[in-house]
Amino acid sequence: MRHIDRFARTLAFLLLFLAWTDGGAAEFAAPTGDGWHVWQVRSSSSDREFDDIYVQMKAGKVTDIEIQTSNCYQRNRSPLNELGIVPNSASIAWLKNLLDSNTRVSEGAIAAISVHAGDEAFTVLTDLLEDRSRSKKTREQALFWLAHSDSDQAYEYLDRLLSSN
């Protein structure tokens, strides 16, 4: 009986851990329906664990994207559909689909991608910056958010970029 109890506690802990980390999250239930939707992603910032991604939908289309960190002004959005913690890879993949939307949405998607922890966000931003088929505005936004990153990887990339000229 003691072994079963220990096994059950270990299994419960493992399931809680997997649900809390990116590894255990299922698919990203993308926002649908009009109004504001919010989800949390692991933050690229060293001084906080999560950042909030806010998406506004109207008539089935994304009309606005905002990021909110703990040091940002807290804007009241109601009603608000809370989607919980989303794996960074799923969030980035969804946001990448918005990069060719209108300027406001595309810029919001780039900003939102930039707050995600990990190599994938860095890769997306550098790919956007280096893709000469992208608009000047898109490439400027990618550069802007790379420069505002506190990632060593972003700093090294920009340092190489500046020293190659």
Short description:
With 165 residues, this protein is α+β, with helices and mostly antiparallel strands. 46% of the residues lie in helices and 19% in strands. It has helices spanning 2-20, 88-96, 103-114, 119-130, 136-147, 152-163; strands at 35-42, 50-58, 61-68, 80-85.
Note down, in words, how this protein is organized.
- With 165 residues, this protein is of the alpha+beta class.
- It has one domain.
- Helix content is 46%, strand content 19%.
- The chain has helices at residues 2-20, 88-96, 103-114, 119-130, 136-147, 152-163, and strands at residues 35-42, 50-58, 61-68, 80-85.
- Strands 3-2-1-4 form a four-stranded mixed sheet.
- The chain starts with a helix and ends with a helix.
- The relative contact order is 0.13.
Backbone CA Rg:
18 Å
The CA-CA distance between the termini, in Å, is 70 Å
Summarize the helix and strand pattern as letters.
Answer: HEEEEHHHHH
Q: Which band does the percent of strand residues land in?
A: 15-25%
Count of runs of 4 or more consecutive helical residues? 6
* Sheet with the most strands: spatial strand order: 3-2-1-4
Mean pLDDT: 83
Tally of distinct domains: 1
> Which range best describes the helical content: under 10%, 10-25%, 25-40%, 40-55%, 55-70% or over 70%?
40-55%
Total strand segments: 4
Classification by helices and strands? alpha+beta
Features:
165 residues; alpha+beta; four-stranded mixed beta sheet; 6 helices; globular
List the helices and strands and how they pair.
Blueprint: H1 2-20, E1 35-42, E2 50-58, E3 61-68, E4 80-85, H2 88-96, H3 103-114, H4 119-130, H5 136-147, H6 152-163
Parallel strand pairs: 1-4
Antiparallel strand pairs: 1-2, 2-3
Helix pairs in contact: 2-3, 3-5, 4-5
